[in-house]
Design brief:
Domain HTH marR-type: 15-143
Shape: globular
CATH class of the domain at 44-116: Mainly Alpha
Pfam family, one: Staph_reg_Sar_Rot
Order of helices and strands: HHHEHHEEHHH
Protein name: MarR family transcriptional regulator
CATH superfamily of the domain at 44-116: Winged helix-like DNA-binding domain superfamily/Winged helix DNA-binding domain
Strand order of the largest sheet: 1-3-2
Number of helices: 8
Number of strands: 3
GO biological process, one term: response to stress
Helix content: 55-70%
Structural class: mainly alpha
Subcellular location: Cytoplasm
CATH topology of the domain at 44-116: Arc Repressor Mutant, subunit A
């Protein structure tokens, strides 16, 4: 390594890392959502689980986990808490007993009115077109990283 490369590496700051920018933005989103989610009695992960079920009700735990990028050992406790709260119900798939189906209850569907009122567009300070571009860029980034991991890069 050249001495200029070494000095450049020594001057790298935490704020220079894209991964930290994404991580800290995620934490900021969590803080912005917190008051609204507390009102609903949900954590952020429970909330996105509910959203995925609004999108497609009665899906398998494995399908839901793929959409949320969560392993079943992380998703199962979330589903148990949502079930205890009366928002979801789990049952064995009658066509394949190995699969567990997750569906919203009436109370889970009612959360939609309250939950969809959350709009952080203004809080981001981005114009609607900028918001869409950033969201698309982050999805592309995530998908590329998932592919790279799958390909062993």
């Amino acid at each position: 390594m050249k001495s200029t490369d070494q000095s450049a590496a020594a001057n790298v700051k935490l704020s220079d890392f894209l991964c930290f920018a994404v991580y800290s933005a995620n934490l900021a989103f969590g803080k912005a959502y917190k008051p609204i989610l507390e009102e609903l009695g949900l954590t952020y992960t429970q909330y996105i689980t509910i959203i995925a079920l609004w999108e497609e009700d009665n899906q398998t735990v494995s399908s839901l986990g793929e959409k949320l990028f969560l392993e079943s050992n992380t998703l199962t406790p979330i589903l148990k808490k949502l079930e205890a709260a009366g928002y979801v119900e789990r049952q064995r798939d009658p066509n394949d007993e190995r699969q567990v189906l997750v569906g919203l209850t009436k109370n889970g569907r009612r959360l939609r009115e309250k939950g969809l009122s959350m709009n952080l567009l203004e809080a981001t300070g981005l114009a609607p077109d900028e918001f869409a571009k950033v969201q698309k860029a982050i999805v592309t980034l995530r998908n590329n990283l998932v592919k790279a991991v799958q390909n062993g890069e």
